[in-house]
Structure formats: C-alpha cells, structure tokens
Amino acid sequence: MPLNLSTTDADFASAFTALVDARREADEDVSRDVTAILKAVRAGGDAALADYTQRFDRHDLNVSGWAVTPAETRAALDGISTELRDALELAAARITTYHEKQKPQDSDGVDSAGVRLGARWNAVDAAGLYVPGGRAAYPSSLLMNVIPAKVAGVQRIAMVTPTPNGEINPLVLAAAQIAGIEEIWRVGGAQAVAALAYGTDRIKPVDVITGPGNAWVAEAKRQLYGVVGIDMVAGPSEIVVVADGKNDPEWTAADLLSQSEHDPTSQSILFTDDAAFADAVAAAVERQIPTLSTSAVARASWDANGAIIVVRDFDEAMPLVDRLAAEHLELAVDDPESLFAQVRHAGSVFLGRMTPEAVGDYVAGPNHVLPTGRRARFSSGLSVLDFMKRTSFLSLTPVAIGAIGPAAVALAQAEGLPAHAASVALRLK
Amino acid sequence: MPLNLSTTDADFASAFTALVDARREADEDVSRDVTAILKAVRAGGDAALADYTQRFDRHDLNVSGWAVTPAETRAALDGISTELRDALELAAARITTYHEKQKPQDSDGVDSAGVRLGARWNAVDAAGLYVPGGRAAYPSSLLMNVIPAKVAGVQRIAMVTPTPNGEINPLVLAAAQIAGIEEIWRVGGAQAVAALAYGTDRIKPVDVITGPGNAWVAEAKRQLYGVVGIDMVAGPSEIVVVADGKNDPEWTAADLLSQSEHDPTSQSILFTDDAAFADAVAAAVERQIPTLSTSAVARASWDANGAIIVVRDFDEAMPLVDRLAAEHLELAVDDPESLFAQVRHAGSVFLGRMTPEAVGDYVAGPNHVLPTGRRARFSSGLSVLDFMKRTSFLSLTPVAIGAIGPAAVALAQAEGLPAHAASVALRLK
C-alpha cells in the first residue's frame, strides 16, 4: 500500500516531513573494498583489471578480448529493427539539437579602468563513460551521456562496460554505433573507473567520468573526484505528479508506474486537489500493475515508496512539491505555467496533460540524467558544461595597473604576502 | 635549489614528465577521523559541535558565543584604515561586475515538431562558506567566495570559521561586513562542514558548501558531496610564467615568489627562451627571498617545487605548458595572444608584461578560486554557476506527441519498460 495523506490530516506536517527525509538509498559501506580496488588497479594496471574481471564477470579478457571491435558494434546496429534504429536516430538528433543550445559563450572586453577581462571555454580532452551491465544497461542512457560530450567537442570518448560471462547488450552497442563511440572496453565495476582515472597500458586516462553504476561504481567515482571530474552522485529515480480531477486516471497511473517500474527504490508521488480522482488513480495503478512485465518491481516500489497526497488546492501543494525537489515533476493541469512559476527545485518539469515524463526519457531532447534524492536543490541535469571548463583571462596596460594596482598592493600587504605586493608595486614605479 | 631543465637535455622528456606527475599534496589519511566527526555531529548536533570546538579550538562556545555578532563585524570594518577599506570595496565592486556577466540565460522555444523545450536557472536557497583560521584566513578569499553566491541570488549565506582560543581575524570580519554576510558561526574543521550539511538546532542546513580548508575540511566536503554541492577539491597553488628575455628579471622573480610564499607545497615554474634571462631571474629570486617576511615559506617552496625551464622557442613551450594545466599562467611576451591561442588547460591566464598574477588575486574581477594540481584539465574557477542549478522543461501538444511519441514507445519497449511505453501510448490513442 502506498502512503495516503491529506493536508487536512492532523499529523500531516510530520508525516510529510518524514516522506521528504526518507532515505531510499541503501547505506552499503563499500568504501574500504573500493579503496583497495583503486589501489590495486593504480599499481597493477591491466593485470589487475584482468584479475578482477575474471573474479567478478567470470571471463578472461585475454581470451574474450579487451575491447569491443568496430565490427561488433556495426553488426549490433545492423541487427536491430528499422523501427528501433529510426527511434534511436531520432532520439540522437533531438538530444543533439537541444544540447547544442547549451554551448557557453566566451567573453572578452575592456572595462572603464582599461582592464581587459574575459573567459574562454574549452572541452576536456577525454571523457570516460560508464555503462552498467544487466538491468540498468539502457541505450537511451548511453545517448544521454555521450551526446553532451560530443557537442562539447570532446575528442576522445572511452566507454567501459562489464560483460558478465562475456555477454553484452546488443541494443547498447547499436546505440554506441549511432553515437559514434569508437573505444569500448569490456571492463566494469570500481576497477573500470580506476582504469579510466589513472590509466593503464591499454586504457589511456580520461579527464571526466560520467554514467550510472552500482554502489561500487558510485563510490569509486566519489573517491576519484578531484583526480578526474565526475557527474553528480545518482540515487533512486523519482517522479512527482501534480494533477487535477480533469485528467484520465489511467494516464496518471501509467505516469506514476513509469517510475515505480525502474527499481524497488524508485518513488512516485501524486498531488491532487480531488479526492475522488486520487481514489481513481489508486485503483488504476492496481489494475495496471499486474499487466506489466515489470510488475514485481513496480509493486515493490509503489507499496514501499508510493504516495498519494490530497491537497485543498495547488497553492498549498507547490511549496510541498518544492521541498521534495523531485527529479521529474509533471504539472498536469489546465494552466501549468502558473504552477511552474512557483517551482524552484526540480530536475525536469513536464508541462500539461500531454507531456508524460517518458518522452523526456527518450526523445524530447533534454537530458534524462537528472539530480535525484532531493539533489535538484543544488545540482542540474547532465549538460555540455560537464564536459567543458572555463579559463578566465585578463590583461593590464600601464594605465590600468596604475588604476587598480595600488589597491592590490594594500590588500597583499594586509594579508602578509609581500611578494604579491612587490610583483604589483615593481610595475607601478 | 629549484629544478633547472632545458629542452635540449638528453633526459628532458622524462624529467618533465616527473615534474608533471609530481604530487605535492600530502597523502594524509584523515578519512576515518572525518567519518567519525560527521557521524557525531549528525547525531549530536550542537552539543557535538561544542565538544569538538572545546577540544580543537580551546574555547567554550556557550561562553565565547556561537555566532559573531553584527556589532563585531561593524566594529571590525570601522577599525581598519580608509586605504584598506577602499581597497576591499574596490575589489568587491570589480568582482561583482565580472561575475554578473556569468549569470546564465534561460531558454524557451518551440521546435519544428511542435515541442516546447527550455531551461530555467534558479539559485540555491542557501550557501555555506568555510573560512579557515590562521595563515590561510584571507579577506580576499571571503569576497571571492561570497560574491558569486550573492550575484547568483542566494538568499542565505552562512559562514563558519574556527576561532582558536576565541580569536578571529578582524580583516576577515571587515570583508564579511562589506560582503553583507549576516550569519557567522565560530566553528571550524570537519565538524563545521557537517553542521552546514546536516544542520543542527542552531545552524540550518545549506545546499552548497565552498571555501578552502585543511585536509579535514577537504575530506569532510568530499564525503558530503551529494548530500550538498561542493566546490572543487583545492590543492597547493601554482604559477607558470612564460617570459622572453625582454622582461625585467626582478618583475618575473617577484611573480614566481608570489606563489612560492603561499605555502611550502606551492609551485612556481618559469619557461623562457633566453638562458641568460633564466640565470638573471634565478639570481633575482635569491636576492628577493631574504627580503620577504615570508622568506622561510618561499625558500622551502622554491627549493622543493620551483623550476626554470629553458626552451628553444615558445612553440616548443606551449604544449608543455598545457600538460601542466596550471592554476595561473602568465604570458609575459610581446604577443601573448598567439600563445594564449595554444592554451587549452589553465585556470586563469595573465596576458602581457604588465599583468602580474597578484592583481587577479585581489582586484581584477575574475575569481581567484581556481583549479589546482592539473585540475584545470577538467574544472573551472568558482563562478555564479556553482550557486545555481538548471531545471529543464518541456511541453507537448497532441500533434507533438504524435510526432515523437511513437519513437519513445519503441525505445521503452526495447528497454523492457512497459509502463514507460504505456504512459506515452495511452496519449496516442
């Protein structure tokens, strides 16, 4: 049974706070194991990678091959249906177009003191992409990670993915072919992240590592933050749907279940101002769950983490929605714009009744790698900026240093840094 | 003695690689201590903060006071010279103007498929600023951290700073007053970072934590990455100066020493195409060091980490410079623009002979919180973007979902996610 709340409940405030504060992420303490793996790969390089792959993925890289060959990725793309190929290509084209608008502008100008000031953006040289094996190996995620790097202008993209027993998801390979990935290593886990960060004889080091993974992969990225750049820590997926009684309960139920079916830790929350609609959605969810091939996961997630919250009106709902800072937020009402104006914290917002979140997962264009677990309070979806960095620059004339140099000398002296002061003062003579 | 290299040395390649790979950061393993502190503060709140402060900073917060009062910050500003106050105000005004140009643009538009797509930026609600005690307590750093947050529109800024034996740097308080900081807590170390991230009865939690600190502070931020946003891991400071023989060796020496005097782990490297100039700079450094009140630190840093590299020409130098990905890069030549065009990796670049790095530390405008230890390969200086986040949004019409919905259904089915497919397919009927 999902949580059923009403803002008229006597204990609503505390029940809602408990919902906001609930941590759905398992506290697996893998940090020591990961530290050991990183150290072993840093010291042992490819030999350590081969050892771990034999142990965890049960194949010998020197037999099965270290890299996926171009022939394999081409064959994977040739092997899928025209419908799927067209869908992947439409997705890739639309994601590319959306992300091209994220490319930052350089700046350069001279101010009234005669100081030239600016900023110049460059792509990182190399990006590493982690692609999980098993349930979470999604071709759509591959596109969402690679395309921003390509649009940024990253010259080298190295993908790593575990191939348990040597097997690999052909749809992921097809997506890799469409995305133009030419370097794919059959390694996974913390050891693959270590190889990307430190480099081995075979795998050259990269500058940024993105992509989802299990607790070991996430912890490896966290420990290597600073050695390389990483994307935000990813947690369980979530959706908040704000819907009035004029929606079709079946549509709303499907939207909620599209998160629930991801993982038992996923969370789906409905806010509505219509108690009868709330009941209708709850009934529709119960009808739909048994029809899903993902019913076991959806059932577990909905019962453990689902919630239906009846509000007096949406003005009451929106501050609550903002506290949840959801990864995905649907505003299925007549005037979504007025509600959206009240949203400060959300990963991505889906406006109106005809905008199910799942279009954003695949083909709309914005990135589906979004902040989870209330992290939309401080972080953004993956973007071109994650694969670029900014160099500021300045240039002074004798007049300009005459104008602003004395203040620098005064501050340097006050901070007890005489060489700082001297480097400016010598030029003021 | 600093390292003396020439690109004509037989072993130059390996000697330079060793220089690039040298890690100047101490491998202090404080992670277990920090984990324990975070846990204690999370569980014990203010009582734990008071305990750690008594133990590490030797004062009783319940006697000395938890917060710096507005009267104290006002008195600090009143107590400094007019010259210093003017310098701080000039710095604050110029930093504000530069950072205002970093404010990102929202986007919103309808594409050819009829899909409305956009992105909207918001500031985080609250930012925490760590200000170290002791040697590294710089009023300039306070301005560089606070002003981007203010420009971003952050409503609440909470500063924490250790006050060993209850004492606090009045210049830092004066800068806090100029920057308009109204919330200053007398706590430091990992315990202060934990309080900002988790919140206590007294200190409300924040969304982003920035500011320099010792190994404990840095490790606390790393462990809390994901609970809050943090700035890049900071390491020892460094400068690379590219200078021809037409420079005044005294100026160049002062520029090199302006990094060396920061910390024994700082690094200063000169590239020049003129061996006689190299010798003259080396001699000038030796003359200047004894004149500095920071001579012990400058001596230690220059001897351990300084380097003078003689190149045949600057085309040979620039790829080497790029490998170093320096925090600060001075191009002290007649035509700095042509060299700058070859730079891909640097925190901030100082163009021409009249642009000493120290003006950038104080009054030029760009941020002086910059990527260190080769991290300019993948990260940028602190900016307004570190205190903001982007919410993507989309809206479909019936026509638009008809155009792109079927591809989403195909991909969802291929990924084995039937509720995803249903949420779109129901709307296509």
Explain the overall architecture.
- Two copies of one chain form a homodimer.
- Chain A is α/β, with parallel strands linked by helices.
- The first copy, chain A, folds into three domains: 31-109 and 121-230, Rossmann fold, CATH 3.40.50; 235-377, Rossmann fold (3-Layer(aba) Sandwich), CATH 3.40.50.1980; 396-428, no CATH class.
- The first copy, chain A, is built from 17 helices and 14 strands.
- Chain A has helices at residues 12-21, 31-57, 61-64, 70-78, 82-100, 139-152, 170-179, 189-198, 215-224, 249-260, 275-288, 295-305, 314-324, 336-340, 357-362, 398-414, 418-428; strands at 3-6, 107-110, 116-123, 126-130, 156-160, 183-185, 208-210, 229-230, 238-243, 267-272, 307-310, 328-332, 348-351, 388-395.
- A six-stranded parallel beta sheet of chain A has the order 1-11-10-9-12-13, sandwiched between helices.
- In chain A, strand 5, helix 7 (170-179) and strand 6 form a beta-alpha-beta unit.
- In chain A, helix 10 packs across helix 11 (275-288).
- Chain A is globular.
Note the main attributes of this structure.
homodimer, 429 residues, alpha/beta, Rossmann fold, 3 domains, 6-stranded parallel β-sheet, 5-stranded parallel β-sheet, 17 helices, globular, amino-acid biosynthesis (chains A, B), zinc ion binding (chains A, B)
